[in-house]
């Protein structure tokens, strides 16, 4: 899904509650909210102001726990700035009303993001009521190895959470002509197709400081086809599919994971 989130945590939580209710009404079992759904993202990616960073929340923060409570029977993935001791991470959690199912800390950092966040160290899939899920945050999906590591770990669904802006260095007059807009869609489709998995891509919308976010949430099938999408405005992209059956069909003749040659890549069974 695509929506805007900012620094006001109570407002963000109210919006999360509304979006979960809309998704539940439409019969969704999995909802992937954007990166930084609690507290918003950076206002300036190249030179973040240390005095205006998103609020940092520990895992037991009341706002974090409230999202799990709101999720109830649904599986909900969302992002926030995590506080862990003296370190801060760009993190994502996947929850139900029973608690945390899985977590991810963004590994790949563009431009000045290291001022606001420490890097994560790996990619792992986890079991959920809707299937085995792995998560990527923003820039992670630029690197094929990220999604491949999740697929090798058995991920059937990749939840790609983003606060992905239009091009910072070469702004286009129309979003459809924007380089980052094209890449955002390209990466979503390529990561799904090369691993033959379902990919649910979320993103922020609107603007924060000098950042203008793309939206363009979507569900991509294991053949790389976009099954449902939003555009630049807020909305929920809903696709109804049998994940296991779709993956089995995609891998029936050409199975990319079993036909890999890891010994030729120099990285062992990890890739």
TrEMBL record:
GO molecular function annotation: amidase activity
EC number: 3.5.1.4
Keywords for the protein's UniProt record, in alphabetical order: Hydrolase
Keyword Hydrolase attributed: yes
Superkingdom of this protein's organism: Bacteria
Residue ranges of every copy of the CN hydrolase domain listed in the record: 1-243
Keyword Hydrolase assigned: yes
InterPro entries on file: Aliph_Amidase/BUP (IPR050345), C-N_Hydrolase (IPR003010), C-N_Hydrolase_sf (IPR036526)
Name of the protein: Aliphatic amidase AmiE
Protein species of origin: Actinokineospora spheciospongiae
